[in-house]
Every structure is written in structure tokens, then in C-alpha cells.
Amino acid sequence: MIYRIRAHHGMCFSFFQGKGYSGEFTENMWKMKEKLSENPEVILLCGADDVCARCPNNLSGKCSSADKVENYDRQVLACCGLREGDKVRWDDFVRAVQAHILSPGKRPDICGGCQWDNLCR
Ligand code: SF4
């Protein structure tokens, strides 16, 4: 099983504590978190993924804030030296996000305008 993960969700999972857009969304986030804890292979995207699949903001396969979040995705990939479509192990991706974005304090530069920003400080 290879999971579809949009790149900026590599940051979101580090801070997720059970809050989200709807009950179905948060339930899916917990399920995804458990699956990802087994270090599966993931394909990195700049579009709707297995998290967006249960999000009320997913309008027929496209995020209602598509331009904003795709920009987050592209910045995460660039910081980590990765490209859309790359297949990586989840733990390797998490390590790259930690090393290149979270540890150097770059996260607010990428997604500081997100409505959940205060949960990720
Ligand atoms: S807000 Fe947009 S990017 Fe975030 S999970 Fe929902 S559909 Fe996906």
C-alpha cells in the first residue's frame, strides 16, 4: 500500500492533536497517523491526498484553498530537495521536514497564514 500525501501534510502530522475541519476529518487523521506510524511508502503530491479525501473543504477533488495550500506543498518539497511524484518512506520524509523546515524555524515562513497556525507553535 502506498499512501498519497501532499507535501505540506508532512508538517501537519507533526502537530496534529485531534483538531480539524470536521469529525470525519479528524477521525481520518488519526487513522492516517496510525498507518503512517508503520513507515509505509508514500507518494508526495501538490494536490488532494488521502487526508483531503475526508475533508469538507475538498470540493470534487480540489481544495477550496487550492492556490494557497499548493504553494505550501511546493515550498516544503523545495526545502527538502524533493519533487512532486517522489516516492519515499514516511519516516524519511518526516526526518527531512524536521531537518530542513521545523528545526531551523522555517515553518511560519511557509504556512504562517494557515488558520491552524497557533496550534503549531
Ligand atoms: S483544507 Fe484543503 S489541503 Fe487541507 S486537508 Fe482539506 S482539502 Fe486538503
Write a compact overview of the structure shown.
With 121 residues, this protein is α+β, with helices and mostly antiparallel strands. The chain contains 5 helices and 5 strands.
Features:
single chain; 121 residues; three-stranded mixed sheet; 5 helices; 5 strands; binds iron/sulfur cluster
List the uncertain runs.
Answer: none
Q: What is the radius of gyration?
A: 13 Å
Query: Which class of secondary structure composition applies to the elements?
Result: alpha+beta
Strand content: 5-15%
Query: Average pLDDT value?
Result: 98
Q: Could you give the count of β-strands?
A: 5
Backbone shape: globular
Count the helices. How many? Answer: 5
The strand line-up of the biggest sheet is 1-2-5
| Major beta sheet summary | 3 strands, mixed
Fraction of helical residues: 40-55%
Euclidean distance between termini CA atoms: 32 Å
SSE pattern, N- to C-terminal: EHHEEEHEHH
Per-chain topology:
Layout: E1 2-6, H1 9-15, H2 23-36, E2 41-45, E3 58-59, E4 62-63, H3 66-80, E5 87-89, H4 90-102, H5 107-111
Parallel strand pairs: 1-2
Antiparallel strand pairs: 2-5, 3-4
Describe this structure in words.
By secondary structure, the chain is of the alpha+beta class. The protein has one domain. The chain has five helices and five strands, in the order E-H-H-E-E-E-H-E-H-H. The protein has helices spanning 9-15, 23-36, 66-80, 90-102, 107-111, and strands at residues 2-6, 41-45, 58-59, 62-63, 87-89. A three-stranded mixed β-sheet has the order 1-2-5. Bound molecules: iron/sulfur cluster (SF4). Iron/sulfur cluster (SF4) binds next to loops.
